[in-house]
Amino acid sequence: MSLATLLLLADGRLPSGGHAHSGGLEAQVAAGRVTDVTGLDGFLRGRLATGGLVAAAFAAAACADVSRGAELDDGLDARTPSPALRKASRAQGRALLRAGRAMWQLPGRRGRDPHQPVALGFLAAAAGLTPAEAAVAAAHGTITGPASAAVRLLGLDPYGVHALLARLTSDCDRIAALAAARQHDAVDDLPAAGAPLLDIGAEHHATWEVRLFAS
């Protein structure tokens, strides 16, 4: 294990476009469902238990066997009913691979851009990380991205937001471990937890003329 490599891959400053996405938070803030740190706590816990589990499982599976990439990508399509979220995930996957190619040797790819968790798994494998470490990076990203967006959207105290993230670390580790244990499962058997409000919110958000985040 290279802890420094894992930190590099999970760093929010990685030029992969993640800062342009709120993970669905902007739509929920606009709807009045998240207004403070307490509301953000509930949002992040729900996101970790649903999208976080799915992303971590698919990142771990892609890291364990990069040859499954196309199959895993189709599986994520089936688990993402919102066209807006599929578009956002592929945009982040494309940006992540671009950043990864500057750091590690990646095999050439053809076809459409992969979903972000699959791209993350590819990068983790290229960097010499384990599927379990890929799962940690994926789970971590599903909460840190929206947390950072919350500071900008709601003007929350960044110290309070990071205190919340610190309280979520054990949950993040638990979700990542559950996901990594499924790395060799058939695609149809991988986690498929959904968050319908995020899907609906993403479709509304995509129609806004003025917005702070791409998703």
TrEMBL record:
Keywords: Chaperone, Cytoplasm, Nickel insertion
GO CC term, one of those recorded: cytoplasm
Keyword Cytoplasm in annotation: yes
Pfam families the record matches: UreF
Highest taxon above the source species: Bacteria
Single GO MF annotation: nickel cation binding
Compartments, as annotated in UniProt: Cytoplasm
InterPro entries per record: UreF, UreF_sf
Assigned protein family: Belongs to the UreF family.
Subunit structure: UreD, UreF and UreG form a complex that acts as a GTP-hydrolysis-dependent molecular chaperone, activating the urease apoprotein by helping to assemble the nickel containing metallocenter of UreC. The UreE protein probably delivers the nickel.
Described purpose of this protein according to its UniProt entry: Required for maturation of urease via the functional incorporation of the urease nickel metallocenter.
Name by which UniProt lists this protein: Urease accessory protein UreF
Phylogenetic lineage: Bacteria, Bacillati, Actinomycetota, Actinomycetes, Micromonosporales
